[in-house]
C-alpha cells in the first residue's frame, strides 16, 4: 500500500511558557509558511507529492527548531530560508537527506 503523500513534513510550532526553549521562538511559524508556499510554487503540493503541516510539541524543542520528514522519519533543525530550501531541494525533490541539518 502506498502512502497518500510521498513526503509529509511536520514543523514543530510549540510555544512554551516564558523562558523555556521552544521552536516558536526560533521563527518556526514564519518558516513553516515559507516552506508551504515554496512547495506550492514548485508544483509539489498535493496527493502523491508533499504535504507541509504544523505540529504541536514534537518534544525536541531543546534541539530546535525542528521538523520531521515522513515516511523516512528524518529529523532536521534549521535556521533560515536557505536551510529550508536545502531540505526541499536536496531531500524532498532530490531524495538525498541533508546531513549537516540532521538530528540524531
How is this structure best summarized?
It comes from Zeimonas arvi. Helix content is 26%, strand content 20%. With 104 residues, it is of the alpha+beta class.
Descriptors for this entry?
2 helices, globular, alpha+beta, Glutaredoxin, 104 residues
Give an overview in words.
This protein has two helices and four strands, in the order βαβββα. A four-stranded mixed sheet has the order 2-1-3-4, with helices on one face. Helix 1 crosses helix 2. Strand 3 and strand 4 form a beta hairpin. The mean pLDDT is 94. 25% of the residues are buried. InterPro entries: Thioredoxin-like_sf. This is (2Fe-2S) ferredoxin domain-containing protein.
User: What would you call the structural class?
Assistant: alpha+beta
- Unreliable parts: none
As a percent range, the share of helical residues equals 25-40%
CATH architecture call: 3-Layer(aba) Sandwich
Describe the secondary-structure layout.
Elements: E1 7-12, H1 28-41, E2 50-55, E3 66-70, E4 74-77, H2 81-93
Parallel strand pairs: 1-2
Antiparallel strand pairs: 1-3, 3-4
Amino acid at each position: 500500500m502506498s502512502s497518500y503523500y510521498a513526503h509529509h513534513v511536520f514543523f514543530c510550532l510549540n510555544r512554551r511558557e516564558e523562558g523555556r526553549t521552544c521552536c516558536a521562538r526560533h521563527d518556526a511559524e514564519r518558516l513553516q509558511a515559507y516552506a508551504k508556499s515554496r512547495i506550492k510554487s514548485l508544483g509539489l503540493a498535493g496527493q502523491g507529492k508533499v504535504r507541509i503541516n504544523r505540529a504541536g510539541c514534537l518534544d525536541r524543542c531543546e534541539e530546535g527548531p525542528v521538523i520531521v520528514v515522513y515516511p523516512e522519519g528524518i529529523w532536521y533543525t534549521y535556521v533560515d530560508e536557505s536551510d529550508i530550501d536545502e531540505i526541499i531541494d536536496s531531500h524532498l525533490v532530490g531524495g538525498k537527506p541533508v546531513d549537516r541539518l540532521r538530528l540524531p
